[in-house]
Amino acid sequence: MRATRYTAEIYKQDRRTRQGERLVRKQDFTAPRGLLRNLLREEYPREQGYRVELHETFVTRFNCQSGRQYQERYDTPRACSPASDLYWSM
Q1: CA 51, CA 22: separation in Å to the nearest integer?
Q2: CA-CA distance, 39 to 11, in Å (whole number)?
């Protein structure tokens, strides 16, 4: 059985930016989701302006040319993903 990996993206409120927040940290973890969520809530409390997003690091995609499934990071740009038509049209 393979351990599930998660990536935490931590944002902090920042009115100097157009979006109103900035990315403070992006880190990969191998831990149970519930435990990881609790640890991140303690470390980066919402009351201090933090927002935490937790993603599964690798997702299963379908390669449209070969017809096979494969694993890639969740944050792979569309132009770099073999699952997208844009990748094959370049």
Answers
A1: 10
A2: 16
